[in-house]
Amino acid sequence: MRTPRGRRPRAGTGPQTRHGAALLTRNHLAFLQGLLDRPGGRCRSQKDLIQAAWPYVARYRGSEPSWWCVQKATRTLPLAWVSRRRRGNRLEFRLLAHGRAIVTGTVPAWVRGMGPWTPVARQAGPPSLPGAIVVGTVENDGLEVVMIPQHEAESLARLHHAMGTATTWGEFKRLAPPEHYEDAVRRWMDSNEEEEPAADQPFDAYDIPGRGDGDWPNWPAQDMLAWVPDEIQARFGRSQASVLNGSWLSLPGESIDEIAAAMKRLGYRCRRDDALIARAHGI
Predict the structure, then answer these.
(1) Closest Cα to residue 229, out of 262, 261, 257?
(2) N or C: which terminus of the chain has fewer CB atoms within 10 Å of its end residue's CB?
């Protein structure tokens, strides 16, 4: 499908076609939709934005891209659609009025590789809603509440299953989520100064740098510091420091119902699933 030529945008509108429609990529559309799903149209960090958009990205591209590709695309989001605000060592993203008008169909839009955009295309929804949060408890010198965006929880559970099951790198590639496989290969190649492991090469997860130290894959309780709302952290939690792996958000297990209720009042869709939380930790 031929994409209309772009023209110099009017101030405050972002890129446009020569007919005046907003011109965006599939990744841009996914970011706008992910932000629309978040309470207040806000994502508290770049990682939170990618997690919110990921199911939409996979849907529009027809397959899951690499995490790094999507991360790079966050830098090209027009400031007329999404604002960025520095908060400590992270960037907060907020959906602006024009970005909201694009994704809701108030203004005409053209998506590269897709054509005209209308909200009708949104109705079916992605397989995992970005606003869905899985809540559960894990043992960490006492029960602690852990919350993980649903897609991320499913992805981590799949990764841990792959690490515990695969006997060759080919099996690991088949079983692991693509973004985690690519991350593992990059780490392995950087450490060994070799090409991508052969499919029949024996696989041991502890050969991946960071695995033995607890630095890889992501630690959900640590990730919560970047996206759980400040009021939830202040009311229920405290930041704890580990000797080797940095700080994490500690939330008391006995407060799980109160925490879930408070998150729901802020607009998150929470469901309790202790089994999925455990699998996302490799338990």
Answers:
(1) 262
(2) N
Residue 193 phi/psi, 5° resolution?
55, 45
pTM exceeding the 0.85 threshold for the entire prediction? no
Q: What is the pLDDT of residue 136?
A: 97
Q: What does the domain layout of the chain look like in residue ranges? A: 6-122, 132-280
Q: What is the DSSP letter of 4?
A: P
Task: Give the length of the chain.
Answer: 283
User: What's the Cα-to-Cα distance from 200 to each of 4, 122, 173, 196, 204, rounded to whole Å?
Assistant: 46, 41, 11, 12, 12
**Residue showing tokens 């993203």:** 93
Per-position DSSP letters for 227-273, written without gaps between them? HS-HHHHHHH-EEEEETTTEEEEE-BGGGHHHHHHHHHHTT-EEEE-
Residues 232, 46, 43, 17, Cα dihedral to 10°? 180
Cβ neighbours of residue 46 closer than 8 Å, sequence gap 6 or more: 71, 74, 90, 91, 93
Residue indicated by tokens 């960490």: 140
Rounded CA separation 242/170 (Å):
35
Each residue's pLDDT tens digit, 42-79? 998 988 898 888 878 877 776 556 777 788 889 999 99
Phi, psi values for residue 83, rounded to 5°: -90, 155
Amino acid letter, 121: A
Residue the block writes with tokens 């996206």: 227
List, in sequence order, every beta strand (DSSP E) within the chain.
Answer: 6-7, 16-17, 22-24, 42-43, 82-87, 90-95, 109-111, 115-117, 132-139, 143-149, 238-242, 246-250, 269-272
CB 232 within 8 A of CB 268: no
Tell whether domain 6-122 is in CATH 2.60.40.1080.
no
